[in-house]
Amino acid sequence: MNIALPIAIPWVAGILLALMDGRRRRPGRFAIVALVATMAAASNLAWEVYQNGPVEMVTGGWAPGVGITLRADMLGLTFALLSLGVLLAALTFEVLSGVRTSSFPALVLFLATGLTGVFMTADAFNFYVFFEITMIAAYVLTSYGEDGRQLRSATIFAVVNLLGSAFFLVGIASLYHVTGRLDMVGIARRVDIFEPEAVMLAGLLIFIAFSVKLGIFPFHFWLPAVYTGTRPAVAAILSGAVANIGSYGLLRFFGQILPEQLKLGAPIFLVLGLASIIYGSVQAISRRSVNEVLAYSSIGQVGFILIALAIGGEQGFAAAVLFAIVNSVNKTLLFLSENLRGWLSGFVFAVGALSVAGVPPVGGFLGKAGLFKIAVAEEDWVIVSLIIVGSALSFVYMFQAYQRRYWAPDPEGSEPHAPSPSSVRALVCAIAVLTIFIGVWPEPALWISEQAAMTFGALP
Amino acid sequence: MNPLVVVILVSLAAAPTTALAGFWRPRWAGPVALAGTALAFAAALWNWHSPGATVDREWAPTWGLRLHVQSDGLAAVYSLLATGIGLAVVLYALAYIPSHLHHQHRDDGDATRFFAFLLLFMGAMVGLVHAQDLFLIFLFWDLTAIASYFLIGYDRQRREARISAIMALQITCVSAIGFLIGSLMLGERFGTYQLPELIAQVESSRYVTVAMAFMLIAALAKSAQAPAHFWLPRAMAAPTPVSAYLHSAAMVAAGVFLIGRIYPLIALSDLLLDVLTIAGAASILVGGILALSRDNLKQLLAYSTISQYGYVVLMFGIGGAYGVGAASFYVLAHGVCKCALFLTAGAVSEATDQRELSNLGGLWRHYPLLAVASGVAAAALAGLPLTIGWFKDELFFNAAVDDGFPATLMAMIAATLTFAYMGRFWLGIFAGPDRGAGRSISPLLVWPIVALAVVAVVGGIVTGPFVRLAAAAASATLGRDVDLHVGYAINTEAKIALVVFASGAILVATYRFWREFPVTIAILGAVVGPDRIYSSVINGLNRLSDRIHWIEVRDLRSRVASVLAPAAVLFVVSLVMTRFTGPFRTGDLKSGDGPIVLMLILIGIAALTAAAPRNHFSMVLALSGVGYGLAVVYSLLRAPDVAIVAVLIETILSLLVFGFLALLPADVDPAEVIPVDDPEQQAQEDHALRDAGLAISAGAFAFVVAWGVMSRPAALESVIAEHVALTPDAHGSDVVTTILADFRGFDTAGEITVLGIAFLGAATLLRRRVAR
């Protein structure tokens, strides 16, 4: 029953919250408590998984494949806990600054339901269902706010990503047609029978779907408008939590179900990853507003994950998970600090900037170090040098943005900004300290990503 | 308690303590910083007297990283410099920073930031010099870069300071990636990141040479060696105490420290030693000549630093016990003198508001103590006897003479240049015609300089402790006992020194006749030098970024297109890659299939009609025709329940869209339209042709995918068979119901949730409308 809790708690809480006015203090607090409870349930499950191996449950008590299999393993739980943490930070941020629409807390909880479901299902179609729960909640959340900008970005987000979902659905249908199975283990086993080329097209559809989700060049064109149009807390949720579906999905589908197709398609992963890094970084350089820089930086950063996948193997997957972890933390920190005013607001942004640039002792350097590590181990100097270029560019854009925003004197005649509430600043500051902590004591992040990557070796 | 742990913890704790004290009471930041530095210095002295201590704890076992620190001679030299010079600088800053802030009309609270980052700098240096794990070194290495970034950019309201700060950060941090890559190369190949273990087991090979070359990039860029020297003079935008610290004990010193730390691995390759020699020699010349061209006090000193660290790098290149020993001694002596000189420049500028040599002169009459103290420091840097400088040059010449004539000549040129610009510096400020006194100088600004001068003189008489320290550092670097001897004697080195003094004096005396030469070189450097390359790269990137921004699409239609078009390209790529191995079969037409084919043709026609641009109404009608047609196909394929569902969905959807169309305003109120980012882009062109092309290719690829997948025989044993067999067990009478309600009931619950959320979203949007 343990395994259902991380999905059930936010689901029930979301339904209850949908009936309340989320702008009031109590529903906000209740939502925070519910998310904390979800995280506790997921952590408890993670402990169990660490001790006894993956936990499985088939709905209705049917045989695996007949019913829907839920399966908690380290990979899924890592992403679940990471995303829940991001949601918790964004929700707390918004509750502290004052929730603007009554449905916000409920939507965050539904998003949590969808995300934990995506990360804990072992059934390809059920994955799609939870994927849809997440996305529909995300579409509505994007419109959160008061002005037309948010509505406009929500429209863009919904239209483009529905297209991505359609690609995914066709991909799943193709896999089902060929293998006759919907459970991931079953598909993986049957796919082995064919020559890898046979399911290449299905793989490609799934790849495109997740690339749209992640915002990989050239599937990123929706992303800048959405990230800059929506409110900071929602941008943090989209880039820190929802985008994880993309990295997780690529890992799950190509690491576990379609490993042969990954080997075959590695050049595509590599080329698009490098293109994303260079393109996103160069676009970010001369963008004037901070959130635009962050949006393009996101495009660059996810490119690193594709490269780690292209290199592949347990080390490559571990590097991908590690990068996804630090990237989520970075983006949450940066998007939440983007509109902060008052003392320490410059400090938290600087921590985020250092993290994106990969400067120790701030956590982000682990992600890049992990990538360099596998590229050096492969002795692939082209990748190494392109990652160097990508890192160098991130110094240019992050610090240009930082200096423009926090160092350059305000233009003449601009009104001084009122400082943000101190509780909000304290929250973002705590995330900044966590980011530094990840770098100063890297073992937890390294260990978790290695455990998560080992999931693939231990499959039935 | 272990002194090693104490010195590291005290140094690292000093910065946060200062920051907290300053946040609480701004005027406490300075005194707390002073106490922190004094404690750190005391701890460093204590640690020096109990060498050999090691602490080795697990840090990140997953990657084999360890919190491995060790105290040895090399660490002692640099930690004493970092804390000792730090003490002098903090003392000086106690007087300097408040008046600096006052001049700029800034809040006194800003002093906290200064002291906190200065102490962070110190802590990072102390951590760096003790670290033995390559990742730990990397961590502290970049921590010094972070501290220096914030210190160089301390006067953030000045554009100059901002540019200099970002430049220093970019040069030192991007080059630091070289260190990371070198470390990873060694770690991946040899299975450890612990420096002592690596030194013990690594043998010369091309791989190791490449790894060490990567590391050297970091070390040379940080110690401002040509051609990566240009960030250092720019960093003069920082307040003077920062410059003093940066040049004498931290940052730049960190670069040569690193060479000393990884020297046994570098020395495996003669090529890399040659690189060091060449980089050192180039920096000596570039720094020395440009120092002679500068009129600005701090600029002159900055170029002098480039040149002085060029000596050190050259000595590492020469190598051997004397080369390496001389390098450490040199860093020690240079640190003391250079700090005093920078502080002098700051005190003079503070008193007179002048920063150029040409506007200064004759100040010895007004500030005799300052003149004497800085005279001693300048003399020591120039290598005059009775100062510590004499011995730094003795060791330098000794190593050069042993190496051969080219090195000796280089050494003589270097020392002559140093003598010349030091002469210019001191004489220019203190000698010459009196130009009047400035304000009185606070004793706090003078006494640190006097203290440093005393150290320089003591070191010229009682050489013992300094030489022992340098020898211990050389032993740590080379991994064997090194014995250094210095003393006053008429030997080759002393003769060389005399020649140098004579030629240096001639240069100073005749400066005005040849000063065009260094100035011309400086102008040449400004036009084609690395500084120019750096800024054109940065500007070029900004322009490129502006230039390519038009690629970004701005309207919804193009955003959809931007998913479909690359998807189409990827399909072609993957079809080519897999060489069309998938079978594309048409299958046979059976006798009863006539109605289905007919229906499908009708559906095709309806779909084409929908695609033809006409009004929305007929488009929706045509689309629902497609849907109903498919429902008929389902029923022909003996799936009546699916057909009924399809009919229902199609009816609901069509009605919904019709209702939706009816609600759309006939005319759009321009005030309600949300402006797009760029109207020009929007009105750019008619997209009809592009859209048609995309539609056709999207359709074509959907067709190919469907065909490719359908051509494969459906899986022989589908899970559906199990579903059918298990339907009675699920207490159902038809399989569709049991699938939806039982086998995959969880999916159904999920989809209901999706509907609920969609409803919630619609309610939110409608409420928003009502609220307006």
Write a brief caption for the model.
The complex is a heterodimer of chains A (460) and B (772). Chain A is mainly α and 460 residues long.
The number of strands of chain B is 2
Low-confidence stretches of chain B: 678-684
* Tally of contiguous helical segments of chain B: 33
Give the rounded overall mean pLDDT of chain B.
Answer: 85
Across the major sheet of chain A, the strand order is: 1-2
Strand order of the largest sheet of chain B: 1-2
How much of the residues of chain B is beta strand, in percent? under 5%
Structural class of chain B: mainly alpha
Describe the global form of chain A.
Answer: globular
Globally, the shape of chain B reads elongated
Biggest interface between protein chains, with counts per chain? A-B, 113 and 102 residues
Draw up the topology in text.
The complex is a heterodimer of chains A (460) and B (772).
Chain A: H1 5-18, H2 25-52, E1 55-58, E2 69-72, H3 74-97, H4 104-120, H5 124-142, H6 148-179, H7 184-191, H8 200-214, H9 223-229, H10 232-242, H11 244-257, H12 259-285, H13 290-311, H14 313-337, H15 345-357, H16 364-377, H17 381-407, H18 422-440, H19 443-454
Helix pairs in contact in A: 1-2, 1-4, 2-3, 2-4, 3-4, 3-10, 3-11, 3-14, 3-18, 3-19, 4-5, 5-6, 5-10, 6-7, 6-8, 6-9, 8-11, 9-13, 10-14, 11-12, 11-13, 11-14, 12-13, 12-17, 13-14, 13-16, 13-17, 14-15, 14-16, 14-18, 14-19, 15-17, 15-18, 16-17
Chain B: H1 3-24, H2 29-48, E1 54-60, E2 65-70, H3 73-103, H4 110-130, H5 134-152, H6 159-190, H7 195-201, H8 206-222, H9 231-234, H10 240-248, H11 252-261, H12 263-266, H13 270-293, H14 297-318, H15 320-352, H16 368-382, H17 388-403, H18 405-430, H19 443-461, H20 464-478, H21 492-509, H22 511-514, H23 516-528, H24 530-547, H25 556-577, H26 594-611, H27 616-636, H28 640-663, H29 679-682, H30 688-711, H31 719-726, H32 735-743, H33 745-771
Antiparallel strand pairs in B: 1-2
Helix pairs in contact in B: 1-2, 1-4, 2-3, 2-4, 3-4, 3-10, 3-15, 3-19, 3-20, 4-5, 5-6, 6-8, 8-11, 10-15, 11-14, 13-14, 13-18, 13-23, 14-15, 14-18, 15-16, 15-17, 15-19, 15-20, 16-18, 16-19, 17-18, 17-19, 17-21, 18-21, 23-24, 25-30, 26-27, 27-28, 32-33
